[in-house]
Amino acid sequence: MNEEPRPKPLFYIVLLLAIAGLVAYGMRNVLFPRADRSGPGTISKDDIQQTKGVEASDANVPTTVKEYTFKASEKLPPITTTSAFAPLADRTVKFALNVWAGWAPIILENEGGAPGKQWTTPGGQPFKVELVLIDNPVAMRDAYASGKAHIGWATLDMLPLFMDELKKDPRLMPRVYQQVDFSNGGDGIVFRRAMAKDAKNPTVSDLRGKKVVLAQNSPSEYFLLNALVNGGVQPGEVKFVYTEDAFQAAAAYNSDKSIAACVSWAPDIYNLSKLPENHLLVSTATANKLIADVWFARADFARDHADICEGLVRGIFAGMEKMKTEDGRKKAAALMSKLYSIPEGDTLGMLGDAHGTNYAENRDFFLNQNNPANFERTWNTAYLLYRKMNRITQQVPFDQVMDFSIIQKLADEEPFKSSRNEYQINFAPKSVQTVKAEGAEILTKVITLHFYPNSWDLRKKVTVREEGKDVEKLYEANLEAVLTEVGQLAAQYGGANIVVEGHTDASMRGQVSAQLVKELANNRAAAVKTEILNKFPSFNPNQFSTEGVGWDRPFDPNDPDNHAKNRRVEIKVIALEHPE
User: What percent of the chain has pLDDT over 70?
Assistant: First the structure.
């Protein structure tokens, strides 16, 4: 009998290498643990066709671990008294609010702060509203907890700070029914130019190692933390100096030259930035979907007076419509002047600091799961930041607080059915060079994406062996999480141009042409943009510009051959107009 030819030794060597490669890839998450990352994605399906790849093969690609060192700080003081809510004397609801432009619609609809106008429930039952000015959020929380206020105010990011105390008593659990506005220029960070690397163009990265003054337990803190994390600065690298409120923060910054920046409100941020030594680093005119103001009812009040809660939602939407007229705005400014004890000229100017969110925008905020700046994502981001700061404990799920029942009920009723999202910015198509020349960079978010070498396809799949079977998996396993985080950044900074830069590693330097490198980098950046727009079709494509940088700017100049880090995308947030 003739023996069948045996494979040559080279066959076994190749087979062994192939098996080792598959095992290494299948165990990549054990050998090289992945951290939670954020970054964009791509859509192209073809690798670059060329004789030599721009990047050498890299079977084992460790993910850069992104860790934040957060500075612990004092938690909110405990609530000392809780009780059932106070009875409605003369069917009057006590609605707490603060000095803020966003409350203009309810002030206008109520014809001032006093309980004079008669509101009605959907069933026609009358009730009144007394607007109670409580500017300090902790004092407001305590009035709400003691039952003296039936309705509380908050920015949604601030509400998680209250939950450790409020969740102790089910009567106090907030029911958030309506968003009243997005801050639209009223909040901002002012920076001292002399403390920047480039005095003409300060960025968020210049805050590293500096003192920043702000009001604790306020939207200012969330605004700053969000900017730091997105700008690659660990909050632990910044020295936080706290004041009782945002106005005191501005005053402290102005008097103490050792403080590099302050987070405050209008008009102080604009008055300070008029001085040549100061720079308005960023305001909510650019980060225009970051801070959302809401009102909430006590759970026991919501249970007993669901009809009044619906009457409030309807009435506030009616006030927003009245605010669209010049007469409505003037009347609102006059009423705000009286309630806030601020000159009427100032209250009229304040109205531009907030964008009242109409019914369609509320529907997007509460019900649209694809909205990157919706209730759920804002809530979860706030919890993430404050939990890392050791300010809160276990997270309360967003759906135990968000109540979309009224918003959903109004969907098929006019004028709500015909409502359209009015908070849109018209971006003109511009080149990256034009965007950078006309605008000021605020921050850069570095995204480490695991592109397959020589590919710009983030949906590229590879075959791995798992439990005795061949399984196809995405090479970039965290693609959807990456896209979501970048989409959220672009949504939060909805008043900014977003530049997507593609980078490659330099593993084939001297062996391939610069043109091929540029082509790969361009394709990666363009594919990232495409993936973001596919995932979030509501974005204006002209908000995004792309550029291929190639291998000219390694992630770490001191470690230029770290190829895994260099195959990356950078997202730059550029203000629409240069402030100078």
Answer: 86
